[in-house]
Amino acid sequence: MRIGNIDQATLEGAEARLPRWMMGFAAVGTLLAFLLGGARVAGGFGLGAAVAILGYSWLHKAVVGLMNAGRERPSRMMLGQLLSRYPLAIAVIFVFYRENWLPFEAVLIGLLGLIAGDLRE
After folding, report:
1. Residue 4: CA atoms inside 13 Å, Cβ hemisphere, count?
2. Number of other CB atoms surrounding residue 117 within 10 Å
3. What is the maximum span of the chain, computed from C-alpha positions, in angstroms?
4. pLDDT by residue (tens digit) across 16-49?
5. Domain locations in the chain?
């Protein structure tokens, strides 16, 4: 499969739309989870989706910061966020699996379900 040249404006537009798609899928998914499974399932999905959106936001900031690394030094906060993305996701999964506060499956689907927003773009 061959991909043609993509101009900068197209990339910037996709970059701007991606968080909106992720939030849209999270909102629709949380509503569907509430209608189909109740408040606990919706809470689990919403929590997982929030952690996924936060992780994406931190990744985006890190990539932008590293792209500008030749002009300015990346901040320690940005590097800390980049390194803490996966440990945070693993900690959320572990705590909700262990304590059973919210359905583990709903949290996991919320974390992984936002890939649909990424694929849309």
Report:
1. 2
2. 23
3. 50
4. 888 888 888 899 999 999 999 999 999 999 988 9
5. 12-120
Based on the number of CB atoms within 10 Å of its own CB, is 95 exposed (0-12), middle (13-18) or buried (19 or more)?
Answer: middle
Going from the C-alpha of 107 to that of each of 25, 92, 103, 104, the distances in angstroms are: 15, 8, 7, 5
Q: Are 19 and 118 in contact (CB under 8 A)?
A: no
Among residues 120, 116, 104, 119, the alpha carbon closest in space to that of 26 is found at 116
Q: What pLDDT is recorded for position 4?
A: 64
- Does the structure show a pLDDT above 70 at 118? no
Residue 68 near residue 52, CB atoms below 8 Å: no
Q: What is the pLDDT of residue 39?
A: 92
Q: What is the pLDDT of residue 15?
A: 77
CA distance 62 to 75: 9
pTM of the model: 0.75
Q: What are phi and psi of 30, to 5 degrees?
A: -65, -40
Q: Is the dihedral of CA 26, 102, 88, 112 positive or negative?
A: negative
